[in-house]
Amino acid sequence: MIQSIQAAAITSCANSFPEEIRPNSYFYEQLGLETNDEWIRSRTGVQERRAVRAEQGETCGTISAEAARRCIELRGIDPEEIDAVILATISGDLGFPATACLVQDIIGAKNAFAFDISGACTGYLYTLATAAAMVECGRFRKVLAIGAEAMSAILDYNERTTSILFGDGAGATLIEAVPDSHPGRILDIQMGTDGSGAKHLYRTGGGSLHLPGADHPDFPKTAKVYQNGRVVYRLAVQRMSQVIEQMLERNRLTLDDIGLIVPHQANIRIIDAVCERLSVSKEKVAIYVDRFANTTAATLPTSMRLAVDEGRVAEGDLVLLATFGAGLTWGAGLLRWAGAPK
Ligand SMILES: CC(C)(COP(=O)(O)OP(=O)(O)OC[C@H]1O[C@@H](n2cnc3c(N)ncnc32)[C@H](O)[C@@H]1OP(=O)(O)O)[C@@H](O)C(=O)NCCC(=O)NCCS
Question: Which residues are known catalytic residues?
């Protein structure tokens, strides 16, 4: 654990999920894909996911702003008190500017600067680490760390292997400077990257490598999500298990000390395999992949809020976050839960 000048904690969190629910039947009944409920449930654990209504102006930015607005409101502060808005996403509203800028405007955080972080499924953890460091160095006091995705806007719905996996949603957290007497604390964050694994999970198009209209060897069109599912599955289990063990070891803790584990919600089989490797009971694991699928950067913050709503985490509990995603990226976070307002 690194000693910092100023302690930081998550003092509020809130979610915003689009209202539109897409059950598994959406893919075979409405889109006519060759798939079925049994295949999707047994391979992924997903039963349904949410999707933004683009035609009604719902976007990654609008759901992020709604989550942020609720987060601030729950904490009972003025948006003008916010120093910075950091948004983790790979499905933002525009190529540029950062979607965080749009959020800053919508919520009226006039005194905040804003930027995005592209860390795919690990994006929220990178955002949390950045926000925590900004607060811990003593320069900033209130930073919004958001994870949000409109994955439905970037998926190819002719492609059954990837389209069924993902969902849309936004989770916002407030990272604040807190006094030593405060019950909450961001205790430790560990992150890793192996860029040589970028080839296993990526999106073509939208960047300088694949110009609009240019063909890519793997695909006839640009802008598609590609994934080597088996490799990603194997590495996700390996990296998430390892990083949890490392986090526990370097903080001299065991799993018995942890009140709640919040893993990235990629796939129930990945979560099951990690639990089996670590011999951890699923009772202390937050699992929402059945209702919301993989919301990429949004899974960690939204799962924390859902766990709070279900009374699964109490003030003073140790909460362990663990994630893995494109990059390849992975990481873990250790929090002393401050008891987010309901
Ligand atoms: C994607 C994933 C669910 C696929 O499961 P899998 O058991 O590896 O399945 P495979 O890719 O080997 O495909 C098995 C068969 O099912 C088929 N299939 C793929 N998607 C299907 C679908 N939606 N419905 C029905 N069949 C499908 C494949 O075409 C393949 O058919 P074939 O054997 O005739 O070629 C799995 O690899 C996985 O979970 N990977 C990790 C994904 C993930 O979480 N990524 C995000 C990480 S942050």
Answer: 121, 264, 294
Q: Are strands 21-23 and 185-193 parallel, antiparallel or unpaired?
A: unpaired
Token duo for residue 46: 């997903």
| Token pair for 228 | 């080597």
Q: How many domains does the chain have?
A: 2
Q: How far is the CA of 160 from the centre of ligand 1 (A)?
A: 9
Q: Rounded to whole angstroms, how far apart are CA atoms 69 and 57?
A: 18
DSSP string, 185-208: EEEEEEEEE-GGGGGGEEE-SSSS
Nearest Cα residue to atom 37 of ligand 1: 229
256 falls within a domain: yes
1 is a domain residue: no
Tell whether 93 and 195 lie within a shared domain.
no
Higher pLDDT, 216 or 113: 113
* Statement to judge: residues 92 and 206 lie in one domain: no
Least confident of 45-49, 212-216, 264-268: 212-216
Q: Residue 161 CA: which ligand 1 atom is closest?
A: 20
Cβ of residue 35 lying under 6 Å from some atom of ligand 1? yes
Tell me the pLDDT band of 226, cut-offs 50, 70 and 90.
Answer: confident
Give residue 221's pLDDT: 52
Q: Which atom of ligand 1 is nearest to the CA of 325?
A: 48
Which residue's CA is the nearest one to ligand 1's atom 41? 233
- Domain annotation covers residue 124: yes
233: containing domain: 185-336
Looking at 126, 161, 178, the residue that finishes a domain is 178
Same domain (yes/no): 174, 53: yes
Please indicate, yes or no, whether residues 251 and 140 belong to a single structural domain of this protein: no
Peptide bond into 328 cis (omega under 30): yes
